[in-house]
Amino acid sequence: MTPEEKARIKIDQWFADAGWKVVNREDYEPTCTAVAIREGLLKGNLEADYFLFINGKAVGVLEAKREETDAFASKVCEQATLYARSVPNIYQAYQKPLPFIFTSNGKELYCCDFREQDSCFKQIMAIPTPHELVKKLGIEDTFAGLPTLKRKGLRDCQYEAVTELEKSFRAGQNRALMVLATGAGKTYTACLAAYRMLSYTPMRRVLFLVDRNNLGKQAEGEFGTFRLTV
């Protein structure tokens, strides 16, 4: 494994931990919520090591280097800045040049907010979550900050239910029906959907209705002991 590959394994994990889905450019779909595209194509046959999109619109780039390379070196920062100015016209962007520019060698991470006057690169401790970038940009989209849902710990039906529920909300639908078989983990699925809405959107309350008292007590217990497994 090359030094560059070792660094990118760490950076991939940083993105995943922050709620971004890391994909190769041939696997990118505009319907994905928060995505870091590897080797994203730019103008002039340039390639961004990571090209960041939220709800189909570009928000930033990350230039990755091997661990031995200084990620704060002026040459590295200039290269990343060039990439932020090179977004192809085929892509929509929240702002051009792209507002968020990152550099990293897998050990250190730097960020420049292009919107700031006299913007400069500053060291940060972690990749920002999609929700954090949405708040910084002031994006008025209720569901733009939802991180990509991870499959780990979920049954296929649970993953599909929450994914499709959120997709319907993004499409402007006010109602959605999730149908899961008995024993499929419906209450946990409801807990997960509620957690994501309360944590990553402006929503502050979720109404959970049941048609029998014993189901209410059961649901109250599960909500009270809910722990993320993803």
From TrEMBL:
GO CC aspect terms: cytosol
UniProt-listed InterPro entries: Helicase/UvrB_N (IPR006935), Helicase_Restrict-Modif_Enz (IPR050742), P-loop_NTPase (IPR027417), Restrct_endonuc_type1_HsdR_N (IPR007409)
Domain Helicase/UvrB N-terminal: from-to ranges: 153-226
Coiled coil start-end: none
Highest rank taxon of the organism: Bacteria
Pfam families reported for this sequence: HSDR_N, ResIII
Annotated Restriction endonuclease type I HsdR N-terminal domain residues: 47-117
GO biological process: DNA restriction-modification system
Residues spanning the membrane: none
UniProt GO MF annotations: ATP binding; DNA binding; type I site-specific deoxyribonuclease activity
Name under which the protein is recorded: Type I restriction enzyme, R subunit
Species assigned in the record: Bacteroides uniformis dnLKV2
